[in-house]
């Protein structure tokens, strides 16, 4: 029983569109109620200021009294009128009862009136002031004629009394209309969500790992953006899985060659009859191990750049960073007699993803040294501007044929006819790192009409 209660409570506590829509309707009714109440108060104040109901009533009653010359009859008219109007006020609860009057003849003699009104000064009647009698505030009005002077005192209707009466009165009408608004809204939301529930049920029925396009028909225009977004997401997942599958296959294929060499040369090294054979096997073994290590390192860098996590940019001296990388690669350039030079300012501070920037510079320079010509030149240029950083790496080596330039950024792709060994991942890493930094990489001309150049532009943070 407790489990069922907890499950029911969990479902009720979970927010739903139906309850939210009903809550919005209730909130709208509350706002309407407050606005109507404020409008009624404003209208009441306007009527009191412009139309002056007490003055009109007093003048109408005084006009009837002017046709009554007998004091006793005039007294009866005033008394009956007051009793009638106070009974009506007490029944309706809209206006406070207790309306009072004082009647004087032409000589100013008292004809009718209560004791409390007799204490009101004549000047207060003439000015129409508001006075407090017995703890109650009264509006005063005096109407003079040839026979009678009629003084009317009406209790002031307080703001609290006005709001209390009108609030309950308006609320009654709103509560009467509420079911006729809430029920259609609730039903429209419930029926309107049914196609979405059917769409969700169709997705639930798919097999695990099924990334095929959704074949559930979507007839409603409101659901089409959701269906298109889902199709786009599935397409991205299919592309990502296909790319990862090809990546794993290519990586396995690429790493199999150096591992095979390691196994073969290890066997030769173990059974070599002479020192010369062992030295040759050891040299080939070291080359295979270095190639496998380089390939593993490149794969690790590429996997890191492919990840969703983004490094926090930090302020670095890009020029100094390039100098340090070139210093590390200088021995490799010296082995092949390549002249390595840098064209950059002394300092170039920028907010950068340092790891991605290092990958770009390192792989471009390493590729230029690895695939350049012996005794050649390699120039690295770095500039900063409003658009960001621009890195240019140029060499005078054999270059890349125009027909092959469209494919050099593919993973594991090597230009045919090149005798140098490599992983085929350097330019793929450069492109991925540039994309990670929201930049671009493009092929440009090399040095002195020879070789090839790579221009990388990255915005600074």
Automatic annotation (TrEMBL):
It holds the Pfam family HATPase_c. The keyword Aminoacyl-tRNA synthetase does not apply. This is histidine kinase. The chain crosses the membrane at residues 22-42. It is an enzyme of class 2 (transferase). It comes from Ramlibacter cellulosilyticus. It comes from the Bacteria. It catalyses: ATP + protein L-histidine = ADP + protein N-phospho-L-histidine.
